[in-house]
Design brief:
Layout: H1 2-38, H2 44-55, H3 62-123, E1 130-133, E2 138-141, E3 144-147, H4 150-164, H5 171-179, H6 188-202, H7 205-211, E4 212-215, E5 219-222, E6 229-231
Parallel strand pairs: 1-6
Antiparallel strand pairs: 1-2, 2-3, 4-5
Length: 232
């Protein structure tokens, strides 16, 4: 039921993103059309100059002809300038569209990442495999290799064995299993220190904090499915 609702939510989210991007493109497209429609005609100046030539055919003096030629050249320059402005505006609109689409895409990715991180914080790390290799002093977590010290590897092995037995170990019990003494003769702080060193060895705070759960007034356990644990 929850997977179905999650799928529906994802589909709704995808439709919203597509609709948002389409709305951005449509709005900018309409703005571009209105802008280009309201820009003056590039040949408007040339048309006015042509009318001057037609309506004032009596201007036959050298000075008048020279003035009309200057006006004609100015009209051509104005036409070329306006055409270049149109091209610049077109490029800027395309650039603005790309930026807005990229912003929406990054926003959606950020929201999805935050939701993913929230699920991880609530449920723990989704571990598909945890392989503990004593010979290589390594741990393979979802195919990511972690090199551990002997003490850290021993602590993780104890936690893994306890998880396979559905047990939660206190700090004193962890210290007792590793040292071979009775848990009643061990200090709780010694086991807590081993857990801290294991987390420090794993390095990644997110991985270590979510992989090794501290259950209040009970102890420590691995927050993963016991079926994915393998020890060699």
């Amino acid at each position: 039921m929850s997977s179905t609702s999650a799928t529906e939510s994802r589909e709704i989210g995808n439709r919203i993103v597509v609709a948002g991007i389409a709305a951005i493109v449509v709005i900018l497209g309409i703005a571009a059309v209105l802008l280009f429609i309201n820009l003056p005609d590039a040949n408007a100046f040339n048309i006015r100059v042509e009318r001057l030539f037609v309506e004032n055919d009596t201007l036959t003096g050298n000075a008048e002809i020279k003035l009309l030629e200057i006006l004609a050249q100015s009209g051509t320059a104005f036409s070329d300038t306006l055409a270049s402005y149109r091209f610049v505006i077109f490029v800027l609109l395309i650039f603005a569209t790309a930026l807005l689409i990229a912003a929406v895409a990054f926003l959606v990715m950020l929201i999805a990442l935050n939701r993913r991180m929230g699920r991880i914080e609530r449920q723990g790390i989704e571990v598909n495999s945890l392989l503990i290799s004593r010979d290589q002093k390594s741990v393979y977590l979802n195919d990511f290799e972690f090199k551990l010290t002997d003490a850290a590897l021993e602590t993780l092995s104890v936690l893994a064995e306890a998880r396979m037995d559905d047990e939660v170990l206190s700090g004193a019990e962890i210290e007792g299993v590793i040292s071979g003494r009775d848990a009643s003769d061990c200090d709780e702080a010694a086991g807590a220190t081993r857990i801290k060193r294991l987390r420090d060895t794993l390095g990644n705070q997110l991985v270590s904090e979510l992989l090794i759960k501290n259950i209040a007034r009970k102890g420590y356990m691995l927050a993963i499915d016991k079926s994915v644990i393998r020890m060699v």
